[in-house]
Amino acid sequence: MFSIGQHVIHPGQGVCTVVGFRDDTPQPMLLLETKQGHAQSYSVTADGIDSGTATNRNSLDFRMSPWAKCNTASVQQVFNGATGDAVTGGPHNGAPYTYEKKAVINKPQELRWSDNAHVINVTGGSVDVYGKSATVQIIINGQPFTWNSGQPLDVTDLAVAADGNYAWSVKVTGGPGYSGLDNTADGGSVAGTRPSDSSEGTKSLKSGTDVTTLAKNPWILGFGNTPISSTTIHKQ
Prior knowledge:
Oligomer: single chain
Radius of gyration: 36 Å
Distance between the termini: 92 Å
Shape: rod-shaped
Helix content: under 10%
Strand content: 35-45%
């Protein structure tokens, strides 16, 4: 299988040269001379990623997809077509290596008040979580609101800002096992002016009313020409 002068890779010795044969022993022997040097190349197979051959003795680069896992990798030396025994390595901590990468946030071009005090229109924007579990929110003045790309924001619970300014940002929170997705991106201020809420008067009346005043002025809760005589207000 071998000829004199052929270079081969011998386990534990590296690159060797065939210098002769002996058949005067119970089992024929192959005489090898160890040479100092390096293999011409080496091949690498990485579990779950890719495989390739490197002619550079120092490194071999693999391209991993975000959140891909690699459990083991095997390396083999190659010289004159001969391949040495594979050396396999695994993760140092017993767990597969995972290429963790933050979510990519493409911020909306604009957030602008609609003609409804409880709705903000969102123009553009997207988030890439690589198909993993995550929560995507737009934070307005510290309050979180779930954001679905292409949809307006329901901000019914957003407190009225005394100065009329509503600062926003985008926040991604990875699900269980995917904290590496966590990311944030500052936005700016919601454009336009928040419309007045016509229901605020009703909300105030429902949440608390001076029943003494109502008792003296029953027409406060009147509709048309019919007063409401009851002075009991139930908080809602």
